[in-house]
Amino acid sequence: MDEKYAAPYRGLVPDGTANFYGMIANIDENVERLAKRLDTLGLSENTILVFMTDNGSSGGWKAYNAGMRGNKGSAYEGGHRVPFFIRWPAGNIGPARDVPNLASATDLLPTFVDLCELRLPRPVDFDGLSLAPLLRGKGEPPADRVVISGTQPNGPPVPHHNTAVMRGPWRLVNGKELYDISNDPAQERDESKRHPEIVAELQAAHDAWWRDVEPSFSDTPRIVLGDPRANPTWLTSWDLHGQSVYMQNQIEYGERADGYWEIEVASAGIYEIALRRWPAELDRPLNEGLQAQRIGKKGDQPSSVVKGANRARLCIAGLDLEQDIPLQAREAVFRVELPAGPARMQAWFVNTSTLGGATWGVYYARAAKE
Questions:
Q1: What is the CATH number of the domain that holds 188?
Q2: Using one digit for the tens of pLDDT, what is the confidence trace for 5-50?
Q3: Cα 201 from Cα 189, distance rounded (Å)
Q4: Do 213 and 235 reside in the same domain of the chain?
Q5: Phi, psi for 47 (deg, rounded to 5)
Q6: 323 and 311 in contact (C-beta within 8 Å)?
Q7: DSSP 3-state helix, strand, coil percentages of the chain (rounded to 5)?
Q8: In terms of pTM, does the model score above 0.70?
Q9: Does any domain span residue 54?
Q10: Within its chain, how far is the Cα of 100 from the centroid?
Q11: Quick one: 107 exposed, middle or buried, by C-beta within 10 A (0-12, 13-18, 19+)?
Q12: Domain range holding 139?
């Protein structure tokens, strides 16, 4: 982010908050640019423009959280409730207004299917509901509709853990705390003892949903390589099984990632696999670091833990390959023949001049079928 966005707030609030406000200003500016570009192209009237956010706030919630409890990853409102704006002048979705009904990200696909009058190639049992009737004033979702939100990124899922079960104004948090956000938006008063019948109803709704989704817990989600609809495929450290890193500052400081990717090779053939320490957009030699911009527990320090790496190693589909890394290389590129089907992929950079050959897991990989 250019410093000009945060500059107006410097000295008025802590630097982290100034950066947070600066990013809001940056996003506002870019949404305006997008809207003006649509005007210039003559596309505004018949383009569905949506603005929404990721779940919860990871840092800015201390500065502003709209009176909600909790932050990113929490089962309270501040962890999962987000804004959703939709504009479509030619779409007959009515005038500007607030829509108070409970809605979910799972509603988006069936809503767009209906709004755009798309024909599905086969019947689909959507997890969400179409909001098209609501937007067009032709009906509302059932009043007793239940929406479930939760996150359990590590380990086998556990029923009711870090979960919110929502129906109307009611929120059942972690299977036991009950809040009425129409009277208590900050979720400060647990109503479970006053309304045990609502707790029981929402627990039963959760348990029915759990029985529906539990069979999928043993499925292995795989990243597909070689599909002509998405070739090349980018793999990142966030997708690693095992030891992974998922935040920009972890990449910046070079924290260790030593996991593996579960992949599905769509079709047999020759593949080019490029291994990177930095994202392609940065265009930086993999042995060079960045001067870390954050001042924190790790200090202001260079961030290239892979400095001195002179070999790259790739294990994929039963193959174990190594090759030298040229000086100033942005990536280490392997050309391999892969059979179709499920496989595991893992890659490292190696410094052979150190005792035992120090290794660092790769953060980014690009896989392209020739």
A1: 3.30.1120.10
A2: 999 999 999 998 999 999 999 999 999 999 999 999 999 999 999 9
A3: 19
A4: no
A5: -115, 130
A6: yes
A7: 25, 25, 50
A8: yes
A9: no
A10: 25
A11: buried
A12: 97-217
